[in-house]
Amino acid sequence: MKRTAVMAACLLSFGIIMGACSDDKANNAKDDHSASYTTNSGDIRETTKSLDHLPKFLNNFEEDMAVLYQQAAKHKDLLKHIPCYCGCGESAGHQNNYDCFVYETKKDGSVVWDDHATKCGVCLEIAKESIASYEQGKSVKEIRQMIDEKYKEGYAEPTPTKSL
After folding, report:
1. pTM of this structure
2. Cα 51 from Cα 53, distance rounded (Å)
3. Burial grade of 112 (CB within 10 A; 0-12, 13-18, 19 or more)
């Protein structure tokens, strides 16, 4: 009898705490115009007003992670042509390296970010190498060839990135 009462009290307390947390999250989402959810593959997707507003999930990382996310977002035309070799094509449905950072840019300019790259050194390294090579004057085609050559052995199958 006492055990049942204790369990009931615990469940009630848990429900109250969860309700309070849910209300806070809803209010925060309204205040900063962001929303987030977790995909079936375990990645967090968070919407912000624009590319200039980074997602909150980056607050848990060093500044260089935020810088790389911002650079990746600004190099969409490059990274859309670069495959990722971490296996995210199969596990998360990604089509290219850009998808590891940004899920979608909506018509109103808002951005749905993906936290996949925060958990994956391969994604980060491919983006970093690609952007650096692009800024050094290499063409998208040259960068694609470089990435394909470097990651062709010992890595997962590449994302089904369209050819140039």
Report:
1. 0.79
2. 5
3. middle
Q: Domain residue spans in the chain? A: 1-32, 34-151
Distance between CA 62 and CA 64 in Å, rounded?
A: 6
Q: Are 115 and 57 in contact (CB under 8 A)?
A: yes
| pLDDT, tens digit, 9 for 90 and up, residues 1-34 | 443 333 333 333 333 333 333 333 333 333 445 6
CA 129, 135, 68, 31 torsion-angle sign: negative
Q: Report the distance separating Cα 157 and Cα 164, nearest Å.
A: 18
Q: Rounded to whole angstroms, how far apart are CA atoms 100 and 123?
A: 7
Neighbours of 90 (CB within 10 A): 13
**Quick one: tokens of 18?**
């969860």
